[in-house]
Amino acid sequence: MNLTWHPSNSLTLLENGAEFFPALTTAMDQAQTEIFLETYIFANDEIGREIAGALRRAAQRGVTVRVLVDGFGGRQFVADMMQALADAGVNVLIYRREVSTLSLRRRRLRRLHRKLAVIDGRIAFVGGINIVSDFEDPRVTAPRQDYAVRVEGPLLNPIHGAVRRVWELVAWASFRRRLRLVHKQPAQPQPCGDVEAALLIRDNIRHRHDIENAYLLGIAAARRDIVLANAYFLPGRRFRQALLDAARRGVRITLLIQGIADHPLQQRATRALYGQLLDAGIRIVEYRRSYLHAKVAVIDDHWATVGSSNIDPFSLLLAREANVVVRNTAFATGLRSRLQQAIDDGGHEIDAHQWQHGSSLQGLLNWAAYGLVRLMIGIAGYGNRH
To answer: pLDDT tens, 179-223?
Structure first.
């Protein structure tokens, strides 16, 4: 893996939709030439309509607006919102439009899970926040916990290139020649800060394991502590072994994981791993104030990552993902402080003794779920790795 670091960036950490959506809307309302937006989910709720309004306003001012939505996560968007945006002058493409709801073929599981936006080649947003309200589920009164970064500086160049490449690929595969990119001029952002950062993508061609390998390198280099927050945490053997090795070296490890599950099967599969991790002295905290959707980590208050990639087979082996990796103490400590606040506000720490002596029935259900998830990955053709 060749990781290209870009110095002299300005990165702003954005927590939850309350910070992310106003920043995104403001940037789009100030756009002068071009907007790219990639998302997995684009919901027809108050947030989706707010973002759609900003996209329409930009198109009406003559800005070239391109929106790429995943065909599975964006099924509601295709049915309810796509045509109205297209009628308003927004260029819309769908990544692998959903046809069959029953197929488990590998191709169907290869989703566009990235959440990226680039405005005028000078501002970008990278993270894990979909275009959907934090309060989508009326049973949960606290906001969905998630993060993104607003980026200015030289890191714009690879981000801009990444969104252009996938747009071109989908336009070509969809036989939409009219939507092919004409101008090949790359972004030319100026240095504007002191943050060193890199863009990591995961695809099924040249960058199959880049995000996982970056995590593994960071964990192997850890000397003091690791705080890892992940919505869907189901690591393979290499990742688990890296964490266990770090714990044996005396590294303090905290895993912040979903406590309120939006995918109960995956939550049970994750809990099947608790015993091994707890035995190694790894601290596990379940976030129970709302849904945890974060995909972030901090290592030794110097290395940090924010992005769309979960630590599970679907993200690490199948989906298109994008993370920003940062080497900057101020940014890393700021993210760690936010994570600590989330732990303090909504975390429930799992007691190792109580877990090991808990219900045998629950343990069997957890391992059954783990086996079922492994079977699904095996059907997709990736069983040996996990």
So the answer is: 767 665 666 788 999 999 999 999 988 898 999 999 999 999 999
The catalytic residue positions are: 113, 115, 120, 293, 295, 300
Q: Where are the beta strands (DSSP E) in 241-382?
A: 252-258, 283-287, 295-299, 303-307, 321-327, 347-349
**What's the length of the chain?**
386
Give the number of other Cβ atoms within 10 Å of residue 249's Cβ.
10
Query: Terminus-to-terminus CA distance in the chain, angstroms?
Result: 21
* 8 Å CB contact between 43 and 74: no
Rounded to an integer, what distance in angstroms lies between the CA atom of residue 36 and that of residue 74? 16
User: Letter for the amino acid at 329?
Assistant: T
In this predicted model, what pLDDT tens digit does every residue of 235-280 receive, in sequence order? 999 999 999 999 999 999 999 999 999 899 999 999 999 999 999 9
Type of residue at 91:
N
Contact 308, 201 (CB under 8 A): no
Nearest Cα to 124, choosing from 1, 9, 16? Answer: 9
Distance CA 344, CA 140 (A): 18
Half-sphere exposure at residue 278, Cβ-oriented, CA atoms within 13 angstroms: 17
**In the chain, where does the domain assigned CATH 3.30.870.10 lie?**
6-194, 199-379
**Which pTM value belongs to this model?**
0.94
Name beta bridge partners: 197: 6, 326
Instruction: Say which CATH class 6-194 falls into.
Output: alpha beta
Q: What is 199-379's CATH number? A: 3.30.870.10
